[in-house]
Structures are given as structure tokens and as C-alpha cells.
DUF2187 domain-containing protein (Lactobacillus rodentium), 104 residues
Amino acid sequence: MKKADVKLGDILGATSEEELKHPFEGKVEKIYDNSALLAITSYDSEDETAVSDLNHKMVINFKKLKKVKKPAQTKVASTNDVKISKVSPDKDSSKEKDTKKTKK
């Protein structure tokens, strides 16, 4: 693939024999002279530890990139998801509130 064919936001297929055992897909975040920074969006479950170690990002040479007709729906790693969970109060934290009230 040539630099002119790569656009920011594209989902591309890639390979990396050094880091990951299987091909993967990623979203182009930055374009360099001979390579692109991909946010890994789809990968084989066998590579899960390596992808996590890479913080779901990898710089790949243009020669190792290819266009993807339809992005995979397998293992997806999104770096922009926000997870919200409700935290129930502990028994200890309610005791702290009670002691503060009695000190005043």
C-alpha cells in the first residue's frame, strides 16, 4: 500500500510477525513517512496479551497494510469507551460520616 492511499480514520488490515501471530485490523490515527499508527480494533484472541501490552496501538509499515472491505466483527478493542459503574457505600465510609458529625 502507498502513503497516498492511507487516510486518517481508515480501517486497515495489517500483519506484524514480530509482535502479533495473526493478522489484525486497526484504525489509522497518524500517518508518518513510511508507516502509520494504528489503534488496534480487531484481533485474534490468541494475541490478546500482546495487544494489551501494546496499549492497543502499533506503528506499521505501509508495505504491511491492506484495505479491508468490511471491518471484522470478532474481537474488538476500543480505546475510547467510558465505563460507568455505581459504587455502593462501604460500612466504613458511613462510620466516618457519623464520627465527623459527632466531633462538631
Strands lie at 11-14, 24-31, 35-43, 57-61, 65-67, 75-76. Helices lie at 48-53, 91-103.
